[in-house]
Amino acid sequence: MATDAMQDIAVDMLTEAQARDELSRLASVLTAANQAYHTEDSPDLSDADYDALKRRNLAIEERYPQLKRADSPSEQVGAPLAEGFTKLAHSVRMMSLANAFDAPEIEDFDRSIRRYLGLADDAPLAFTAEPKIDGLSLSLRYEKGILIQAATRGDGAVGENVTVNARTIDDIPQTLSGAPDVLEVRGEVYMSHADFSALNARQEARGGKRFANPRNAAAGSLRQLDAEITRSRPLKFFAYAWGELSEPLAPTQMGAIERLSALGFSINPLTKRCDGPTEMLAHYSAIEEQRATLGYDIDGVVYKIDDLALQARLGFRSTTPRWAIAHKFPAELAWTRLESIDIQVGRTGALSPVARLTPVTVGGVVVSNATLHNEDYIAGRDATGAPIRDGKDIRIGDWVQVYRAGDVIPKLADVDLDKRPPGSERFVFPETCPECGSDAIREDGDAVRRCTGGLVCPAQAVEKLKHFVSRAAFDIEGLGAKQVEQLYRDEWIAEPADIFSLKERFGSGMQQLRNREGWGEKSANNLFDAIDEKRKIPLGRLLFSLGLRHVGEVVSNDLARHYLSWSALINALDAARAAAVRYREAEQAVTRERQAAAAEGRRAKLKETRDGCWAADPAIPAEARAAWDELIGIDGIGETVAVSLVTSFGQPTERASIDRLAACLDIQDAERPASDGSPVAGKTVVFTGTLERMTRAEAKARAEALGAKVSGSVSKKTDIVIAGPGAGSKGEKARELGVEIMDEDAWLALIGA
Q1: Which of 46-50, 84-88, 653-657 has the lowest mean pLDDT?
Q2: Which of the pair, 643 or 592, is modelled with greater confidence?
Q3: For 571-574, which contacts have Cβ atoms below 8 Å and span 24 or more sequence positions?
Q4: Domain 535-668 has what CATH class?
Q5: Tell me, what's the pLDDT at 707?
Q6: CB 410, CB 417: distance < 8 Å
Q7: Is this model's pTM higher than 0.90 or not?
Q8: Which of 167, 254, 453, 719 could form a disulfide with 436 if both were Cys (CB 3.0 to 4.6 A apart)?
Q9: 99-328: which CATH topology?
């Protein structure tokens, strides 16, 4: 069995040989992750994934202790040092912390300590609870009150000498008054959210590296070979522990932390003494609720035995203390405040609501925006009207739970009604476009409200132009999304046709371009030449470039193969318009019937409703009905695509824009298949049921290559129906119409396959 496949096998199902291979894999993956996180400040695993791998490694070692490797990740702290820094040995090893992820593990932590110390279940046992800062660990050594060295954690035993850099951090005192003769203060270097955003803005302005999160920014800033760079970065420091001491700071953890504060160090104000797991977990919840407003990143809460004498008795495991544990927050979840709701308009006119959030780190990435899908989602219901989130709506000012779907797109999972501001109001979704003021309508059956402005709407116009020049569309060299935005902003182009008249309309335009950064006479001429080269365009590619709703590359090419020419396509869509309008009315009637049936608790008769409305208007011209039937009969083209096509080409403003574009182009007919001698050339065929000797896609491709038209429905125009097992209604209709029916073997024999 391949090692990569073993990651999916439960630990208790691994054989000894499999376990040995899996430990080897885990050692390699975790060592690389440690290097990326601690040495390179560029983690390639999320905290959740890293923790899961470490837990798996430990579980295998517990099941097969004889297989524990000499380089076991469970024995590692940190990672090797980066080049460029001298080494400093820690007089007291810098340890890591064991992790817990739920309340039962914290209760187990308490019980295990009591067992170790021989304490009764009801004996008093106090802990401290403090936020776990997500930064870079640092050890500061003071002798006779003077800072003499600063070192990173490194591998726990030896760290990097960053003394010069540490001296530039305002939170780190250079001298102490009243401190022990030898005092090693341990803490965390971090960066606030506000400072992180400002740093990234400065980095971006000068073309520098953007940091993924404040932890990476803080680590990268402290570990600069040039201390002046560190000085320019807004670093902060929280003290929370100590290493070597010439005399005790206090008899308790809490007392020692307060002593560090008195000496001039910043300590976390949320550190609290707790009497047992109940208070510890309550403080964990309280800290988690404040997480988004702290202004800096935390990824959990650290619990420590308060009595330092008990800490000494408990001692250490190989890499972690027995008297402390880190209670981690769920890696992909966080609570934060919803500051506002913005409406963005896409190229199809869709109004998409976006949540603007108080920044919070989720899964190692700072999240300040999240999708809100549509107005139903904000209102607390799905497309059918059923409640989601128990019917809780989303309002500005709410505390919301954020998660990263698929570790990519931030979304909202829940709303905390207990924290809803008094007087908050339901969000009213706009009925006009925020970009152009046109009506924003929501058609029956559509979950999205859309702007009716078309190319009049600047948001739709610029997005359509970006799509128009994209790689799968016109792909004009030197004219990408950035250039399109610039030309649109300067009012040189407003619609696709304007691109092809740039050179004509701006006889002096070349001079204007020459005066802009990044343009010269040569680059302007190159652009005009590249535009001219794209005037000849295949029909399918042109259709895709228009950016019509529901019309992607596959649909565009299917339409091109069916109609072959631009004029034939235009004539067919114009002919089908009257039928499409009536079909849309029928769909609206279906929606009303569905809603009425739901309100009355009965089952809707949707097919009867649609067919009744469709047939109710005998005034639909026969030519329109035939054109509509042909359009929806194309394999892969259903009613939804057909309505979108006919509607787009039927709107006067959009049609005029399309006509102006077509006048600039040499639109190439779709290639007719080389079908000489083909027994099915020009015939319309329908595949139905299950094909057993080829896939449906392969069957369609073969038929089209032989000059046949493949339809998705049976009509009087159908010549052959190829019926496999389970043919159903299409087979019945073919028999009613007297259409030739054959099985798959007969079809293959006919085409000589």
Answers
A1: 46-50
A2: 643
A3: 572/627, 572/630, 572/631, 573/627, 573/631, 573/645, 573/646, 573/649, 573/650, 574/649, 574/650
A4: mainly alpha
A5: 82
A6: no
A7: no
A8: 453
A9: D-amino Acid Aminotransferase; Chain A, domain 1 (3.30.470)
